[in-house]
Amino acid sequence: MGVAGGRFPAPVPNLQRSLARLNVRLALYQPDIPQNTGTILRLCACLGVPADIIEPAGFPVSDRAFRRAGMDYLDEVEIERHVSWTTFEAARRQAGRRLVLATTRAAVRYVDFAFAPGDVILLGRESAGAPDAVHAAADARILIPMRPAMRSLNIAVSAAMILGEALRQTAGFPAPAPEGQP
Ligand SMILES: C[S@@+](CC[C@H](N)C(=O)[O-])C[C@H]1O[C@@H](n2cnc3c(N)ncnc32)[C@H](O)[C@@H]1O
């Protein structure tokens, strides 16, 4: 589903439509900062990765900063909005997709984790990460190693690093345009 006419699609009750295809997805848990969400959705658009937004978000989806960061790329990304963690989680479980949570509260380095094409990579909110219940629901928790005393990376930077590794492992990068073509 694209974001037609500059408007965000309405929340859908489940993931059934796009879950038919087995690719890695990126999910955002109650995102706080519109610029980060826009940047991540642009990343998803460029790499051909569908995105899930688990609401409530900390900003109106029509927020100008959000639109500015994502620019016209938002027309090219498949986005599904979920009204709550509960509805997202029910649909994900029904579809049999693994939930891979990116969190600083993990022991497994993302480069050591074996990604699979159906995985949903979930990022926590900028202000508070993901709550305990989300940690408990995850099939795996992965970490980007950092120097001691460093609290966390920016969420969009985390998304780019982990998505790059997941697509590398699953041969999921889009085919590049023929040489000389944009
Ligand atoms: C700004 S961070 C959240 C910081 C929050 N205060 C906390 O304690 O979790 C936003 C999200 O980026 C991802 N993230 C940031 N640094 C990470 C790291 N080193 N390893 C894995 N995920 C990371 C996580 O998904 C995190 O929930």
Ordered list of secondary-structure elements with their pairings:
Layout: H1 16-19, E1 25-29, H2 34-47, E2 51-54, H3 64-70, E3 79-82, H4 85-95, E4 99-102, E5 108-109, E6 120-123, H5 132-137, E7 140-143, H6 155-169
Parallel strand pairs: 1-2, 1-6, 2-3, 4-6, 4-7, 5-7
Helix pairs in contact: 2-3, 2-6
The chain binds S-adenosylmethionine.
S-adenosylmethionine (SAM) binds near residues 103, 123, 152 and 155.
Number of domains: 1
CATH secondary-structure class: Alpha Beta
Q: What is the number of beta strands?
A: 7
SSE order, as H and E? HEHEHEHEEEHEH
The percent range for helix content is 25-40%
Q: What is the overall pLDDT average?
A: 88
Architecture (CATH level 2) name: 3-Layer(aba) Sandwich
Low-confidence stretches: 1-7, 12-20
Percentage of residues in strands: 5-15%
Q: Could you tell me the radius of gyration in angstroms?
A: 16 Å
Main sheet specs: 7 strands, parallel
Structural class of the helix and strand makeup?
alpha/beta
N-end to C-end Cα span: 24 Å
* Outline type: globular
Q: What order do the strands of the largest sheet run in, or round the barrel if closed? A: 3-2-1-6-4-7-5
CATH-defined topology: Alpha/beta knot
Given the structure, what is the number of helices?
A: 6
EC number: 2.1.1.207
Organism: Alsobacter metallidurans
Keywords: Cytoplasm, Methyltransferase, S-adenosyl-L-methionine, Transferase, tRNA processing
Protein name: tRNA (cytidine(34)-2'-O)-methyltransferase
